[in-house]
Give the backbone structure.
Amino acid sequence: MIRILCVCLGNICRSPLAEGILRRQAHENGLEILVDSAGIGDWHVGQPPDPRAIQIGISSGCEMTMSARQVQGSDFKKFDMILAMDHSNLQALNQWPDSDPTRIKLIRSFDPTAKDLEVPDPYYGEYSDFESVAEMLENACQGIIRSIKESNLS
Ligand code: 4NP
């Protein structure tokens, strides 16, 4: 089973939404994927996702019962793919000792229609910023599912 870790800064907005959406899409496509998420920082460890991320996730049929955790060294061995939300997350992941750059990618690199490859941080934004994040993640996750199906990795 392919194992995918979604990573953002705080693990309360973007990456839990990515986790929920990817898990839902995997289920809809009959694929068995182990999906998890984590944050670069430790400020919100143990907390549920931001209420706005929970609301948007639930409204699109995702389970949003996760709690925040920080990226740890064992993640780099456990996961086949580590998907960063923005360039700053990507850089932090690539600086980790023994990280394998071939497994670490920007999540939007799976969306062929994406012009900007970042999922912008919505934490200090409006509800509409969370809605656009969710739309970007739906498209990116469709690309991930497509690429897993094409490569027979599941
Ligand atoms: P996330 O958003 O990285 O999408 O979870 C953030 C949440 C909290 C903070 C930054 C980004 N923070 O600085 O506390």
